Amino acid sequence: MNLCSEVAVFLGGFIVLIYFFVKRKYSYWAKLGVSSAEPSFPWGNIGQVGSKLHSTELFQQFYRRFKGKAPFMGFYATIAPQVFLMDLDLIQRILIKDFQYFHDRAQYYNLEDDPISAHLFNIDGEKWKTLRAKISPTFTSGRMKMMLPTVIDVAQNFHKILLDRIGDKAEIEIKDYLSRFTTDVIGSCAFGLDCNNLRDPKVKFRIYGDQVLGKSWWKIIVNSFAKSHIELARKLHITTTDKDVSDFYRGVVFDTIKYREENGVQRNDFLNLLMQIKDRGNLDGNTIDNEGKLTLEEIAAQSLVFFLAGYETSSTTMTFALYEMAKNPEIQEKARKNVLDILDKYNGEFTYEASMEMTYLDQVINETLRKYPSLGSLTRRIVQDYAVPGTKFVLKRGLSVIIPIHAIQNDPEIYPDPDKFDPERFSVENSKNRHSAAFLPFGDGPRNCIGLRFGMMQVRVGLVTILRSFNVGICSRTPDPLILKKNSLTMTPQGGMWIRLKRVPE
User: Please, are residues 116 and 304 in contact by the beta-carbon 8 Å criterion?
Assistant: First the structure.
């Protein structure tokens, strides 16, 4: 046998081994008797995500096909089996009652090669528990009151920009303006810096933020592989943060902290609170807790995730809210009246207390989050074998679990006529009559969104800034139907959001 023949035999044998290995992997759910979607090598069921489908659209397909047949189904991310939940009672148990089995978020981070990826959203186990306990005091209502003046200052600049750019009437791409607003807010509150994105659309904060959130199809596949094979991915030194992004944000945090420490600068912002924890291990100002101290790398990681989560999710929520109010002028007028009435009560001053009384505006925001949750799904990882209540199935340690919140929140059996935008769904009475797991834009249980209060505060301020001065309407470039950007980690409209703004007579 010559060399070419030997190579051909070797390659043939190798291909056969790969075939049977993959076939065995793809029979995982069938062997357990669990309903599943038919996979295709090498991407399993996720081959179209990022190119032809947004992840929420794939999960909507699963939900419509399998809901009611079982409490969960199975699918494959590349060759890794994953669990897709559909039963609300089971979802509630997993997030709250049985949290000890599901406390990891099923995200990938690499502390050695990519330290900025080891932030609160990604990390697992005791690392997460310790860090969450350290950072939670920075998001109390009292801390939000301290940060509100900073948000208001940016909002006033935002208002001036809108008046300068549009005059009495104009058609604008509002998503871009709202992203500039939230970039400046988070830049100031997270890093203590004036990003000036409202006046300069090409600032690095925004460019690098978009780079992180807008993944290419290939990066989505790599990220999915890393999340499904964490230890192997770390041995292969796979990173999910581009080096230029990591260098930029780490440099900003390190330089800002050095400047503040050398010059005794104090600010009412997120970074200042993290610096207190770095130095003292707590926020009480008296005792020192050496075990609780933060490192500079940990501060950089938390600042990054606060920026990424805060600027994109809030701007997208405001974008969709304005889109729906443009299409439903009666809802818009009711929201504007609610805003103006409360502001009159507080002599025109936007205080924290005033924002908490804008109940109809909150209903508008919640209905927006129902139709368009920023993250269309939640993920968890099983940390010990879990016997699914009421079934014969045991879900094995290491499996990732998907909770399709967008599909649930657009289920006509839970929300009749789900395409209709109806803030009354979130009146006190209607909210009480719904299953608690039927509305999860911020998650639930111990691992819910830590920045919920800040996010809601920022969205309220942004919407009030527009509603008190402008009427929002549709224009020829307003998308119809709405198309999602396929390669975005969040739910965001493809091509932005064009609307018409017209000054409201004072």
Answer: yes
User: pLDDT at position 170, please?
Assistant: 86
Q: What are phi and psi of 102, to 5 degrees?
A: -135, 35
pTM score, whole prediction: 0.90
Backbone phi and psi for residue 75, each to the nearest 5 degrees, phi listed first: -150, 180
- DSSP bridge partners of 85: 72
Residue type for position 421: F
The helix (run of H) or strand (run of E) holding residue 73 is: strand 72-77
Return the amino acid letter for 178. Answer: L
Residue 285's Cβ-side half-sphere holds a number of Cα atoms within 13 Å equal to 1
Structure tokens, 26: 């793809």
Phi-psi bin for 269: left (phi > 0), alpha (psi -120 to 50), beta? beta
Q: In whole angstroms, give the CA distance from residue 117 to residue 110.
A: 6
User: 212 CB contacts (<8 Å, ≥6 apart)?
Assistant: 241, 242, 245, 308
Give dist(CA 493, CA 486) in Å, integer: 9
* Residue-averaged pLDDT of the chain: 88
CA 226 vs CA 80, 230, 397, 449: distances in Å: 10, 5, 17, 23
Is pLDDT of 282 > 80? no
Alpha carbons 349 and 219: distance in angstroms, whole number: 46
211: tokens are: 């780079």
The residue type of 408 is: I
3-state secondary structure (DSSP) of residue 403: strand
Rounded mean pLDDT, 4-24: 62
User: How many other CB atoms are there within 10 angstroms of residue 2's CB atom?
Assistant: 7
Helix or strand run (H / E) with residue 366: helix 359-371
Q: Are strands 498-503 and 470-473 parallel, antiparallel or unpaired?
A: antiparallel
Query: How do residues 380-409 score in pLDDT, each as one tens digit?
Result: 999 999 999 999 999 999 999 999 999 999
Give me the residue label for tokens 């016997």: 387
Look up tokens 């089996």; give the residue.
81
State the Cα–Cα distance between residues 241 and 301, nearest whole angstrom: 11
Distance CA 156, CA 339 (A): 16
